[in-house]
Design goal:
mainly alpha
Length: about 170
């Protein structure tokens, strides 16, 4: 795996293990407590994070398996990725895109932790096989930011998880 990808993957893994342990080690009542109507519990936030990872990895796998040549990353895409990065750092709430908005009322935390680990193993395999000459090409379509390169996609996953840290701190102080 190329060094920048390995570094990004290591940070993602640190986040995954931290968030997974954070929720799994909390008392069950705290895991499932919703602060208000239409607000997620810590278990549901964990489910959402794992679901986003799963959908990103699946989209990347499909894009690569299609065999279609990846287009060079355009300047506009770089600007949109930068704006996405900074938007996720702001302490404001965003409505999740429809594909990842729905979370079940009841979440089995241990299953989510295992599924997230499986998704990350798939991501690791993808990163290990990803050609270095494709790193500056459009690889993933983000519903709000448009096309992202693979390094930008990994940065999005990291920033997205961090965006939910404040929410998790309120749910599991």
């Amino acid at each position: 795996m190329n060094a920048p990808l390995a570094s990004s993957f290591d940070r993602l893994e640190q986040q995954r293990t931290y968030f997974s342990a954070w929720v799994a080690n909390a008392p069950a009542a705290a895991q499932y407590r919703q602060p208000g109507s239409n607000q997620w519990s810590a278990a549901q936030v964990l489910f959402h994070l794992a679901l986003v990872d799963q959908q990103v990895v699946t989209a990347l796998e499909k894009r690569i398996a299609s065999g279609k040549p990846l287009r060079p990353l355009r300047f506009k895409a770089k600007v949109r990725a930068f704006l996405l990065k900074w938007a996720l750092r702001l302490p404001i709430k965003f409505k999740a895109p429809p594909a990842v908005r729905e979370v079940p009322d009841t979440v089995n935390v241990s299953e989510v932790v295992q599924e997230w680990q499986t998704t990350r193993s798939r991501l690791q395999a993808l990163l290990e096989a990803y050609p270095a000459q494709e790193l500056d090409k459009e690889a993933f379509f983000h519903p709000r930011a448009g096309m992202l390169s693979l390094p930008q996609t990994l940065q999005f996953l990291e920033d997205h998880t961090e965006h939910h840290r404040r929410q998790m701190q309120r749910l599991l102080p």
